[in-house]
Specification:
41% of the residues lie in helices and 28% in strands. It has one domain: Jelly Rolls. The strands form two sheets. The protein has a five-stranded antiparallel β-sheet with strand order 1-2-9-4-7. A five-stranded antiparallel β-sheet has the order 6-5-8-3-10. The protein has 188 residues and is α+β, with helices and mostly antiparallel strands.
Length: 188
């Protein structure tokens, strides 16, 4: 009977992870080589054009289809396909498929704050706040600023300008305090 309960708990944990994504391999466990995240993208999920300065980012589709723009060139990734974006290269992605997409996202070298970004988003989803983040309500703007910073996301174009303008309305102290609260709540 004990084995059945353990199997149920393991299955339940995996089902929950499948709803929110999870850190599959932490850079704290592999000498900083890479951070591997298992991402779940609902239909319409996207990231606007951005770049990273600290790591190369790879997307490997496990299930579904993901559109990735690498330096302006659109690629449709299907299960087993992988695209690597070198640091400083502008890119974006979007789930245009109409179905959920499961994808491995790898940062090389590993970048622990990138992992914290996913953990915070997972926690926000569990707390029912992730939808508010996508709408960028006034309450959520500081969190958006923090998540962009943690994931080393440098937004470009109109969205980048909008983020810079929004950032001017929040003191560095307020952002630092909120960041500390988020890390303590979701990453400890």
């Amino acid at each position: 009977m004990q084995a059945d309960i353990g199997e149920y708990e393991t299955k339940n944990k995996m089902e929950q992870q499948d709803k929110v994504g999870y850190v599959m391999e932490s850079c704290t466990e592999n000498g900083g080589t890479r951070s591997v995240l298992h991402g779940i993208f609902a239909h319409g999920a996207m990231a606007p054009t951005h770049y990273h300065t600290e790591f190369n980012e790879s997307f490997e589709v496990l299930e579904g289809e993901l559109a990735v723009w690498n330096d302006g060139k659109k690629i449709i990734l299907k299960p087993g396909d992988k695209a690597t974006i070198q640091k400083t290269v502008h890119h974006k992605f979007k789930n245009e498929s109409g179905n959920t997409v499961k994808v491995l996202i790898t940062a090389e070298p590993g970048y622990e704050p990138f992992e914290h970004n996913l953990k915070i988003m997972m926690g926000l989803q569990k707390d029912g706040l992730l939808e508010q983040l996508s709408k960028m309500t006034l309450k959520m703007i500081p969190i958006g600023i923090i998540l962009a910073d943690l994931s080393n996301t440098k937004l470009v174009g109109g969205v980048g300008v909008m983020f810079k303008v929004m950032s001017m309305f929040y003191s560095k102290e307020k952002i630092a305090l909120r960041k500390k609260q988020l890390l303590e709540r979701y990453c400890s």
